From TrEMBL:
<dbReference type="InterPro" id="IPR036291">
    <property type="entry name" value="NAD(P)-bd_dom_sf"/>
</dbReference>
<dbReference type="GO" id="GO:0019354">
    <property type="term" value="P:siroheme biosynthetic process"/>
</dbReference>
<keyword id="KW-0520">NAD</keyword>
<dbReference type="InterPro" id="IPR006367">
    <property type="entry name" value="Sirohaem_synthase_N"/>
</dbReference>
<dbReference type="Pfam" id="PF13241">
    <property type="entry name" value="NAD_binding_7"/>
</dbReference>
<protein>
    <recommendedName>
        <fullName>precorrin-2 dehydrogenase</fullName>
        <ecNumber>1.3.1.76</ecNumber>
    </recommendedName>
</protein>
<dbReference type="Pfam" id="PF10414">
    <property type="entry name" value="CysG_dimeriser"/>
</dbReference>
<dbReference type="InterPro" id="IPR028281">
    <property type="entry name" value="Sirohaem_synthase_central"/>
</dbReference>
<feature type="domain" description="Siroheme synthase central">
    <location>
        <begin position="120"/>
        <end position="146"/>
    </location>
</feature>
<keyword id="KW-0560">Oxidoreductase</keyword>
<dbReference type="InterPro" id="IPR019478">
    <property type="entry name" value="Sirohaem_synthase_dimer_dom"/>
</dbReference>
<dbReference type="InterPro" id="IPR028161">
    <property type="entry name" value="Met8-like"/>
</dbReference>
<dbReference type="GO" id="GO:0043115">
    <property type="term" value="F:precorrin-2 dehydrogenase activity"/>
</dbReference>
<feature type="domain" description="Sirohaem synthase dimerisation">
    <location>
        <begin position="152"/>
        <end position="205"/>
    </location>
</feature>
<keyword id="KW-0627">Porphyrin biosynthesis</keyword>
<dbReference type="Pfam" id="PF14824">
    <property type="entry name" value="Sirohm_synth_M"/>
</dbReference>
<dbReference type="InterPro" id="IPR042518">
    <property type="entry name" value="SirC_C"/>
</dbReference>
Length: 210
């Protein structure tokens, strides 16, 4: 396999099909729902959590075996059953429709893979081994989690607000970049981590001083 092209997809209100109802499918479903996707699940049997999500109308559940028509309207497809022949049928159907397909534990059949992800608010750090070793990707993710705590999510919220203010008030592009650089290199992140919220506005004002 050639090098994979990393990309972040906006799945908000996009229909994603998950074929399978076990624990692996459950993890896929949870991550899709977290991203605002519309989820369709096809499986004769599902985990209690998937069943609960169905009752809560968080997803569409088709309690039967997979049919090609289940692909109708899909944006992304995940084959997550423990039956290789079913997964292969999904792959073949997706190839005929030029649909992105991910098959659990079969990188060769995928035309996209799912990285191991750290989320801190708007910050997302993805680690991928191209399907070669998901366990290694998960190990690296755990190591990175220690370096990027929840304070990064709060910092990004502040940066987003201040960035919009700067874009509205400062016309000169070079001056904008200097302000953004000051914000990034300031000690605001440490202040958030230490809970010294009373000093944050002071630091922001200092960075905005022209």
């Amino acid at each position: 396999m050639n090098c994979l092209y990393p990309v972040y997809l906006n799945l908000d209100q996009q229909l994603c099909l998950v074929v399978g109802g076990g624990k692996v499918a459950e993890r896929k479903i949870c991550s899709l729902l977290e991203c605002g996707a519309l989820v369709r699940v096809v499986s004769p049997q599902v985990t209690p959590l998937i069943e609960q999500y169905s009752r809560q109308n968080k997803l569409e559940l088709r309690s039967r075996d997979y049919q090609t028509s289940d692909l109708d309207g899909a944006f992304l497809v995940f084959a997550a059953t423990n039956q290789p022949q079913v997964n292969q049928r999904v792959v073949e159907d997706c190839r005929q429709r030029n649909l992105p397909i991910n098959v659990v534990d079969n990188p060769a059949a995928c035309n996209f893979t799912v990285p191991s992800v750290i989320r801190r608010g708007k910050l997302a750090i993805a680690v991928s081994t191209g399907g070669a070793s998901p366990l290694l990707a998960a190990k690296i993710r755990r190591q990175l989690e220690g370096h990027f705590g929840p304070e990064y999510g709060d910092f990004l919220e502040i940066l987003a607000d201040v960035r919009q203010q700067v874009l509205n008030d400062v016309e000169d592009i070079t001056e904008r970049q200097e302000i953004f650089k000051k914000l990034i290199e300031s000690d605001i992140l440490e202040l958030i981590k230490e809970g010294k919220h009373d000093l944050i506005k002071e630091r922001i004002d200092k960075c905005l001083s022209r």
